[in-house]
Amino acid sequence: MEKLRVSAVSYTNTKPFLYGLEHSNVLDKLELSLDIPADCAQKLIDDKADVGLIPVAALLRLPYYEIIGDYCIGATGAVNSVFIFSDVPVQQISTICLDPQSRTSNNLARILMKKYWNIDPVILQEGEADAQVLIGDRTFGRKQEFNYAYDLAEEWMNFTGLPFAFAVWTANKPVNEQLKAELNKALAYGVDHRVDLLKTMDKRADFDIDDYLLHKIDYVFDDKKHQALNLYLEFLKEIDHSLISAV
Ligand SMILES: C=C(O[C@@H]1C=C(C(=O)O)C=C[C@H]1O)C(=O)O
């Protein structure tokens, strides 16, 4: 049987899922690759993978998709790894750099800037700016370097009263039901055994990995996070539309 091509995020936040896969038999049925989020998205768009833990912003670029399973990379309040780092208070940001590894958080920043903070900074692809979006392990221990650090999951919660889902397990074609169930069971095992996983991981003085995996990342894709996902996609369509019509 052909193996299912799976692309998962290469960051620490995905370790519980990998732990679950490594402790299950389903791994033999997968061709697993670890990629930065932007590449997980692109692989599903280009049909170089069948299933991925993909940034939710990329769902709008898939002609067919199914969110599979009960798990995600989410947060209920502060996530502690998705920030706008800034030298100035948010109201004074006039230029901002996005993170090339991100799809969801770049667009979350755009949504919050336009609809919540009512600011309209120039978005730069690279170079010096007042502020930058940064996600994942590269943010660990860096908060103190900046005058202001806006946690985007926390700001989304302040704005909407909802939790957030950054990335969801998605298929770009129908997948065998039994395989889907096996995959979901492996993911559940990993989420349920985070304490065991943490015992095997190196600790850092500048970042609390235990708190991050146990309390900041919220892995269960529940109704509230689904509601948040739908709202986020509505906002994103609005913003993209206004960009297109402004051209
Ligand atoms: C919480 C995070 O969630 C992530 C953010 C993503 C994005 O911005 O596109 C995609 C996948 C997740 O890894 C993080 O990476 O810190």
Automatic annotation (TrEMBL):
Lipid metabolism in keyword set: no
GO molecular function: hydro-lyase activity
UniProt keywords, alphabetically: Lyase, Menaquinone biosynthesis
GO biological process per UniProt: menaquinone biosynthetic process
Residue intervals passing through the bilayer: none
Catalytic activity, as annotated: chorismate = 3-[(1-carboxyvinyl)-oxy]benzoate + H2O
Enzyme class: lyase
EC number: 4.2.1.151
Classification via Pfam families: VitK2_biosynth (PF02621)
Coiled coil: none
Pathway this chain belongs to: Quinol/quinone metabolism; menaquinone biosynthesis
UniProt entry tagged with the keyword Lyase: yes
Gene3D superfamilies linked: Periplasmic binding protein-like II
Annotated CDD domains: PBP2_Sco4506 (cd13634)
Function: Catalyzes the dehydration of chorismate into 3-[(1-carboxyvinyl)oxy]benzoate, a step in the biosynthesis of menaquinone (MK, vitamin K2).
Similarity section: Belongs to the MqnA/MqnD family. MqnA subfamily.
Protein name: Chorismate dehydratase
